[in-house]
Amino acid sequence: MKPLLIQNGRIIDPGQKRDEPGSLLIAGGKIAWAGWGKESPPETDYDVIDAEGLVVCPGFIDLHCHLRQPGFEGRETIATGTRAAARGGFTTVCCMPNTEPPLDNKATVEFVKDTAAAEGIIRVLTIGCVSRGRMGEELAEMGALAAAGVIGFSDDGEPVKNSPLMRRALEYSRYCKLPVIDHCEDTDLSRGGQMNEGEISAGLGLQGTPNAAEDIIVARDLLLSELTGGWVHIAHTTTEGAVELIRRAKAKGIQVTAEVTPHHLTLTEKMVKSHGTSAKVNPPLRTEQDVKALIQGLNDNTIDIIATDHAPHTEAEKRQPFELAPFGISGFETALASLMGLVHRKDISLVNLINKLTAAPAKIIDKSCGGLGTLATGSTADVTILDPNREWTVDTGEFASKGKNTPLDGDRLKGKVMATIYGGNIVYKDESIK
Ligand SMILES: [Zn+2]
Question: pLDDT tens for residues 348-407?
């Protein structure tokens, strides 16, 4: 394969604190050379992508997604999920263990890794269960899972309800230096909850989930992290209260990291009224005030990263009455474009947005899979090229994901992934890129 020159782009590499015009040469699956300004590469025989007017950055890393295989292949498979992720600019995704069987043992983790190697088109990393069978009763074999290469532990979809069990998981986390990725929900308080609790839920006659259902478990697990010295990673943060709790915990030196999803950063509970089950997600879309707090948290680094929580479902599942439809939004293919709305409104800088999708998540998975999220010479050539100003209309008919469940279908968005390069290979390319 010929080397590939990506020339005259705006290179944004937050890990190296670079944001300047330049070119990259990819050879042998690595970043072989980087030139700044109009510098030309040493060799002459290569293919060229002209990135004039485009942004060139490290491939995106998603710490939280659901690929549904094994067990729920009607919703998504590793083959379709990785293609959808590539279309969204992702070169690494970490899949949650709430499959059937769940990823609570080495053999199932190996199955996902082997399937990803055979059928996937980007890097798939795995997250192991905290508890055996995700039952919340006894710890999974965390040591065997760590040895199998999981990047962290989570019973996502459910919290770890049992406080002593969470304590032991965090003790193990301190020992193995991998995060416990925490789905924070007091399920007694949220029982029957269909959306955010407030005037809109009351008006729709739907049972609501109060912010406190999230805040209570965030507070508990920050205390348990303080007690044990273990690393807690707060998944899909959605409330103003949780942001404030995490902010205070960080100031105190508690070992916590946190993520927020594109939908919680850009949409509110009002979407449920206009879009029905496609806006049904857990934790629920919250209020304007919560969204503001999340953006603030992202900007002051209380929230470390953006993760999609890509959660595909079949059309039949989402077509059910609201109370019966499952929670989740198919997020890979709209993530960047929806987040670019925040950049265009100047709520967050483009450099910080890219940081939250590249260098920052790379740091979290560094122990299990180091060296990602950078364009440094010699590193793996995972590269995303995007056009910040390209407008396009979301058409779920064109999704690679089996999950067409998004409230953004038909929306006009500004900002588009133009090409995704994984390990030096082009895994997605917009038709306008030659
Ligand atoms: Zn969750």
Answer: 999 999 999 999 999 999 999 999 999 999 999 999 999 999 999 999 999 999 999 999
State in Å: Cα 183 to ligand 1 middle: 5
Cβ atoms 114, 415 nearer than 8 A: no
For residues 334 and 345, give the distance between their C-alpha atoms in angstroms, rounded to a whole number. 17
Alpha-carbon distance of 18 to 175, in angstroms, equals: 35
Amino acid at 222: L
Hey, which residues are catalytic here?
Answer: 309
Name the region of 121 (left: φ>0; alpha: ψ -120 to 50; beta: rest): alpha
Specify the DSSP class assigned to residue 380: B
Angle at 136 between CA 131 and CA 140, to 5 degrees: 15
Q: 105: CA distance to ligand 1 center in Å? A: 20
**Six token digits for residue 240:** 């103003």
Is-contact 92 125, C-beta < 8 A?
yes
Question: What's the CA angle centered on 143, arms 162 and 133, to 5 degrees?
Answer: 45
324 CB-near residues (< 8 Å, 6+ apart):
none
Ligand 1 centroid to 270 CA: how many Å? 21
Q: How far apart are CA 260 and CA 217, in angstroms?
A: 16
Mind listing the pLDDT tens digit for each residue in 13-60?
999 999 999 999 999 999 999 998 888 887 778 999 999 999 999 999
Cα R_g (the chain), whole angstroms: 21
